Amino acid sequence: MDTIKTEATILQTKQHFDVLDGLRGIAALSVVTFHFMEWAYTDASKNFIGHGFLAVDFFFCLSGFVIGYAYDDRIAKMGILNFFKLRIIRLHPLVIAGSVLGLLAFLFDPFGGHPELYSTGKIILAFLCSVLLIPLPVIADRGFNLFSFNAPAWSLFWEYVANIVYAFVLYRVSRSFLLLFTILSALAVCFVAYRSGNLLGGWSGPTFWDGCARISYSFSVGLLIYRSNWIIKNKLGFIGLAILLFLAFIMPFSKLNAISEPFVVLVYFPLLIALGAGATLTPAIRRVCIFSGKISYPLYITHYAVLWMFGNYYTSHKPGTMQLTLIIIAGLVLLVGAAYLVMEFYDIPLRKYFTDKRKTRLAKEKAGVV
Predict the structure, then answer these.
(1) Are 52 and 33 in contact (CB under 8 A)?
(2) How many CB atoms lie within 10 A of CB 244?
(3) Total domain count for the chain?
(4) What is the DSSP letter of 116?
(5) Residue 362 Cα distances to 1, 73, 354, angstroms
(6) What separation in angstroms does the CA of 354 have from each of 4, 85, 206?
């Protein structure tokens, strides 16, 4: 069978869940806002979006649903190697872009930082590990993040792990086994929340395995939602569901986090995915959702270079409340604009180039067989 035509036909005939794309954008904007605010309010209980970090769990759940939807019925035909190639083409150009921007911010931050404290060899090694998604929490000036020059890449690392497990295991297993794995992963999430008091971990060396628990449950339950067809038809629309999603991020940060956060991750987010998959849209809102979905990943994976500079500025200059508010609002607008430019002039052209090369190679292989 012609692999190119098969993939193209499947992708053209499959339904697009535009509301879920829109919600991905809301989650990305929320986590960027959270990263700004956590510099201004180190006491998370005073941060109006103190649970913005839970956007990552929403991403993981949405990813499980989308991967199952996009590949369950074609990964056997296309092969595991082709699956990995497609995922790398989709994800890795922006991983590299985020790493490059992070390195530049580290070396040329006008508001602070101490790159002179680190040897050239250590900086190069940290950069290469960031580009290759190899965890290396060795830069103190970057909070000992798993990926020194691109902090959000910790979630992409686990995304890659989930894709590998999906390709070799999860796509083959029965729904009963998937349900069992999901339940066990839910227990792991509860244990992490009980031990740490929250689900904030995963980004650093000491909390490395917290990320494993978070991806294990959310990705598998997203996959389970798809395979079980737990799609709830509704008329909430994008606006209604966006409000419901945002409520999770502005939930008060309190002593009850060990209970409230697992509830949001284990129950609330899967419910929103099921509702988002079954929601209807008007044409005007659909365009908003499509743009929101497209900009979400570029925004998420490239924004943190600016956040380090903002943090150094805030620490050294101590701006007042009004000035800080204006800076954060302007920063959000500029980061969305920058993410759009990265998407339009780097990510989309590069992905198109590699996709076209892949299609050409497949066509030549087909011609050679014939």
Answers:
(1) yes
(2) 16
(3) 1
(4) G
(5) 12, 20, 12
(6) 14, 10, 37
Q: If you average pLDDT over residues 254-266, what whole number do you get? A: 96
Among the listed residues 21, 57, 16, 68, the one whose alpha carbon sits nearest the alpha carbon of residue 223: 68
Give how far Cα 275 sits from Cα of 20, 178, 272, 289, Å. Answer: 9, 21, 5, 15
Token pair for 36: 């700004």
Domain that holds residue 365: 3-369
User: End-to-end CA distance of the chain, in Å?
Assistant: 11
Distances (CA, A) of 304 to 292, 307, 326, 331: 19, 5, 19, 11
Non-local CB neighbours of 12 within 8 Å, separated by 6+ positions: none
pLDDT tens by residue, 121-146: 999 999 999 999 999 999 999 999 99
133, 146 contact by CB (below 8 A)? no
Torsion angle defined by CA atoms of residues 356, 28, 259 and 279, in that order, rounded to the nearest 10 degrees: -70
* Residue of 205, 202, 116 lying closest to 156 (CA atoms): 202
Q: What DSSP designation does 48 have?
A: T
What average pLDDT is seen over the chain? 94
**With contact defined as beta carbons under 8 Å apart, do 93 and 349 qualify?**
no
Q: Phi-psi bin for 139: left (phi > 0), alpha (psi -120 to 50), beta?
A: beta
Statement: residue 355 has pLDDT above 50: yes
> Is it the case that residue 358 has pLDDT exceeding 50?
yes
Rounded to 5 degrees, φ, ψ at 279 are -85, 155
Report the alpha-carbon distance of residue 80 to residue 71 in Å, rounded.
10
DSSP labels for 130-184?
HHHT------GGGTTBSSTT-TTHHHHHHHHHHHHHIIIIITTS-HHHHHHHHHH
Q: Give tens-digit pLDDT for 56-94.
A: 999 999 999 999 999 999 999 999 999 999 999 999 999
Asked if residues 52 and 31 have their Cβ atoms less than 8 Å apart, the reply is yes
Which residue bears the tokens 């502005």?
A: 250
Using CB atoms within 10 Å of the CB of residue 319, give its burial: 0 to 12 exposed, 13 to 18 middle, 19+ buried. middle
